[in-house]
Each structure stands twice: as structure tokens, then as C-alpha cells.
Amino acid sequence: MKYNLRIFLLLLGVFVGSFGTAINTVFAQEINLNSNYQLLNHTTKSAAKNYKDNELRAFLTSKYDYWDARVLASFWGVTVDNAKARMVRKIIWGGENIAILEQFLVDARLQALRAVKPARAGDSSPYKFYQDSTYNYNDAEALARFWGERSPTDAKVRIERNLILGNDEVIDQALRYARSRNR
Q1: Pairwise CA distance, residues 15 & 36, whole Å
Q2: Model pTM?
């Protein structure tokens, strides 16, 4: 009986010892996996940041600007940031993707231009692009006089159309001339 008890205790000791080793092995693997996950997560975040930087650089060095992204965002029903990202992918992919982007831009501008109508009495401003711009009522008044429009509302329509067409430089130049005339 003593012999059986010794064998039992020996086996129990081996079992408990191997069980402890197994637990240590599992913890070591978990720590290793966790470290690998953190390294992978850090690497993924770095790659994503680099990709975002490259996207931003591609957009800023392209011929497209905020107003192109704004028109496409409205056309695609997405945010301006999402439209920029979609534009950048097409720019980076190049070739026929740029031709497709150009066609989207034409379609988006046509759709937006069709939607521009002079405001009626009691309407809140129906001009999406004018509202997103930095132009204000005083600018619309000055441009109405400079362009020979009947009212600031007509100038807002013209500003809206120019923004849709990506001609914000035309507006800025006209506004500089209009202000210099009024001095």
C-alpha cells in the first residue's frame, strides 16, 4: 500500500508539474501573441498614416481642389473627405481612372448647375456651394455691381455656378476689382 501511495503521489507530482508547465507555456504564448499583435497594430497604424499622407499629397499636388471634391461629394452623396479619398484613388491608379474621374466631374457639375435656381422670397439660402464658401452678403453686393447683376441674389447665383465649375479664382479676381473700384 505504501508503494501504491508513493506511485500515486509521484504521478500526482508529475501531473501537477506538467500542468504548471502547460499553464506557463500558454501564458508565454499569449504574451508573445500579444506582443506580436501590438507590433502588427503599430505597423498597421504607421502604414495607414503613411498611406493617408500619400493620399493627401496626391490630392494637393493634383489639378483638383476643394470645389471639385465638394461637387463630387454632392453628386455621389458622400462627405467631402470621402469624395477626396475616392478622387485620390483614381489619381493614384492613373490612366483610365483619371478619365473616369473627369467624366464624373462633368456629370456632377451638370447636375449641380441644373439645381441652381434664383432664391424665391422666403427661401432660406438654397445655394449649397455659396454657403460652404467664405463669400458673404457684402461680397455678393459688390459683385452684383461689378458684374452688372440686378441684385445680390443674382450675384449669389453666379457665385454658386462659378464655384460648381471650379472657378473660384474668377470670383476672387472679380471681387478684388470690385473692391478696388469702390475705394
Answers
A1: 31
A2: 0.62
